[in-house]
Amino acid sequence: MTHIRRSVHSENPDSGESGRPAKTGIRHRALVLGLVLAGGICLLTPYNNIFRQATPLGGGHFPLAPFFILMILTSTAAVVGKVFTRRPFSGRELLVVWILMVLVSGIAYTGLIRTFFINLTAPYHFATVENQWEDQLQPMLPEKLYPQDREAIRQLYDGLPGGRRMGWIQVFSHIPWSAWAVPLTAWSVFILAAYGVMICLVNLLSRQWIHNERMNFPLLQVPRLLEDAMESPAGGRVFFNYFLLTGILVPVCLHAINGLHAFYPSVPQIPTLILAGPYFPKYGVFSGFQKLKIYLYPAFIGFAFLTSRQISFSFWVFFILGGLLIGMLSVVGVTVPAASLGITFGPTLSRPEETQMIGAYGVFFLFILWLARFHVRDVLCQAFGKKETAGVQTEWFSVRRAFWFSVSGFAGMVLWCRYFGMPLPRAVLLIGAFFMVMIVAVRVICQGGLAYFTLTVAPMDGLMVVFGSKFFAGVGGVIAAVAQKVLFVDLRESLMPSLVHARKVTQDATPRRGVFAAIGLALPAGLGLSFISMLCLCYRYGIRELELDWAIRTTVTVYDTIHSFVESPVEPGRWVIIFSVAGALVMLTLVVCYHRFYWWPIHPIGYLTTYSSAMRILWVSFFIGWACNALCMRYGGIALFRRLRYFFVGLIIGDFLMGGLWALAGLVTGISYQVLPS
To answer: How far is CA 275 from the centre of its chain?
Structure first.
């Protein structure tokens, strides 16, 4: 276990836990404030992100709005504390307020709502004579999962008559709720059961990840810096640190100039996007970089600096190697036609080479289980009768309850799929694949400090490689594909990584049950408010008038794929199987070397992001952050790192500060300027 601690924790010289209080009381006022602000974010996010097209209030696993509000609350509490000698909230309380907002911010956008209502209406609204959905696809759709009122669907896309002239309350009263009551109830059962299983899995695995492996959490370092500043009598000095102020100044100047350019085109612009593809040849070793783009995001350079060097190095190295592989195959005469990819559900899957991730995800999941084998043994012993050790409980609730609740929730999701027509064995494998991929993604996001992450291949793609496409034929395939699209494929704002962060943030908070109750209340409340907000937005303006091209395109593609299964099921191509096996072998080699050789410089997590669309955006940021970290440690050691890290923290604070200010400006003026990846 010593090697594990070195590789995932101690490479960051300032990641220790020293100096933290054993327990910190959280008052009810903080929980109430967190719930109120979380609800407000859910109500505002669809309007801001979709209608205004402003910088997303969510937008990843370090969302903009919660951190912007945290900075405001921290500043306000510090000023009040100076004036009245007593602060309204402690640093830990503000951290709990922040994490409650983080948990629900994704629900209101890509984490669920962005495509949810399009998922439920696309097979009816986009049915044409040419695609034959009405004759072949619609008869397979369970009526309880889809609205059956065609007029309600039409108004969702076209808007209510005179909807733009209505107030929000009036729009709410005119929504045809009778058409949505049954499908929303049915899907809410599935969604809340999935959320429940995620909570239980995090409760079961958190001790292994946080205490046994001492996993570093790069995305939590800046919020915890603000917490420390509030808790320490002299903590306010941090905000006058020269390095911190310099770091803040860089993105402030950058986005002030570029933001003014968006409002006044005569103001010169500082380019943050460079199209590098034209500089690479169409043929040869470097032909895989024809679409290469260089994005500069100061905040992600900061996250990369705070991440373990081994991991940040692996991210950009594997991205480069993935591009070189395409060119090398062409040089040696191996032609892999794109058509051999066949039918897939991967959100960004475009080449057979990318199916390496199917095998890689499976092997890395087994590696996670192997690392946790002793912890899993203890969990099973406690679940089946062994008395839990007194005085060491660090979970939200008991291990025994978490285990059996997770089993019950898993069984409930399986029975839900079975009720709507999916054979039982397929349902078990499908739900198992969903959570297997989710656990792997949690490690990539939380351990790697990836605030922005997308899957390359979908869970169903892996199952089809093993069992063939006929495994998901008929009604079962429809349910599987739509359920996957709802929760388990668009992981840019998924819930489970945020739950792991919440577990880390609240590990010393008391009362533990009160904090957990607030989390348990925030999720269903956020779900309901997000439903209401999105329906009001769509029925007021109509989906046709909203910028939802990505959501429509990806959803229609899912139903096209389902329909192709009905007409002519296609077995996985030979190249898909070859690359899947190759991916498994590469990952097996990586995890063995990583675990056995102390000097091994590459982390297996980097391989999992090779073809992720997120890394196409962030690879330069991670290269710059890694290079700065490596140079700092090489020539200045820990002393320089502890001073210089404030500069990179400043990059993060400045980027999100400007993102929040321009988002507010966009809400007022209607002119949007994107600070962070959308």
So the answer is: 26
